[in-house]
Amino acid sequence: MSKNIIVIGSCNTDMVIKVDRLPVPGETVIGDSFMMNPGGKGANQAVAAARLNGNVYFIAKTGNDLFGRRSVELYEDEGIHVGNIYSDSSLPSGVALITVDTNGENSIAVASGANKSLSPDDIRQAQSVIEKGDILLMQLEIPIETVEYAAQLASEKGIKVILNPAPACSLSATLLKNLYMIIPNETEAEMLSGIKVTDWESAQKAADTISRKGVDIVVITMGAKGAFVKENDNYYRVSVPPVKALDTTAAGDTFCGALCVALSENMKVLDAVKFACKCASITVTRMGAQSSLPYRKEIDQL
Fold first, then answer.
1. Number of C-alpha atoms within 13 angstroms, CB side, residue 267?
2. Given 101, 253, 271, 300, which residue is catalytic?
3. What angle separates helix 66-77 from helix 41-51, to the nearest 10 degrees?
4. I need a labelling partner for 198 at 20 to 30 A (CA). Which of 156, 208, 228, 246 fits?
5. Which residue stretches of the chain have pLDDT < 70?
6. How far is CA 49 from the centre of its chain?
7. For the chain, how big is the Rg over CA atoms in Å?
8. pLDDT in tens, 37-67
9. SS3 71
10. Would you state the pLDDT for residue 2?
């Protein structure tokens, strides 16, 4: 039976415009289409894990508005436990404005809204739920003090704490030492290590540097190249299936959610990363964030 996956993080409503190319500062570009979808890195990862048959509890905060209420309804429809999604009466729900070009590259601006008020007090209120977890997955679209508090609480209880350090920022030594695994992309790995990641060799150097700060398992996602894995003293290069990318939005979130599901099913780290790469390769062939997340039956059919 799958173990419990606790996701603490953001939930937004994504407003997406498809364009031929991303605008430069001061430029207006006419788009082809518009979509409005639920998003936010925390929510994306929770939904990704749920669709892949993970048993997911989501801890988050929305505004007391239409966007927030609709988001919670959608999470319930996905089979996610939503008892610890709190409502902030003074702030709106988070919103993201996204432009996507014909190569699938995107540019994103986020108004955090209620996400920035998810506090350590909220985590204390959800402590009994967190302590039921086997894996805790977090990102950085909520206050860093909340991430640090939850990581310490979970680590002390023997829960595997996994951090997707996005958007990139500096991390304390204490937080890093409370992690079981960290999953940065190339940009985030460079910020954490000071090493520009451009290929497998530089990825290994960056992973070594990050690991020396206290994290035993480092997984660097590298887009179409795949993922580089450092598991203690072992190194692996994992490729992804070749696909035509339409929209890279939520590919990293799919990867993180899928990896947690695989670990919850007792897969070894390398096999879990291979599974996550396969799932993410499906996401990039579709438009949108949560609308692009695959279901387990699609993965099993590949």
1. 17
2. 253
3. 20
4. 246
5. 1-2
6. 10
7. 18
8. 888 999 999 999 999 999 999 999 999 999 9
9. helix
10. 65
pTM for this structure? 0.92
Q: Is 253 a catalytic residue?
A: yes
Residue 17 parent element (H or E): strand 12-18
| Residue at 247: amino acid letter | D
Retrieve residue 270's tokens. Answer: 């390398």
pLDDT at 253: 96
Q: Which of 146, 147, 178 is nearest to 165 (CA)?
A: 147
Name residue, tokens 């985030």: 188
Buried b or exposed e, range 216-249, using 16+ CB within 10 angstroms: ebbbbbbbebbbbbbbeeeeeebebeeeebbbbb
Percent of the chain with pLDDT over 90: 85
Q: Do 32 and 277 touch, CB atoms closer than 8 A?
A: no
- Which structure tokens are listed for 72? 């919670």
Which phi and psi angles does 149 have, rounded to 5°? -65, -45
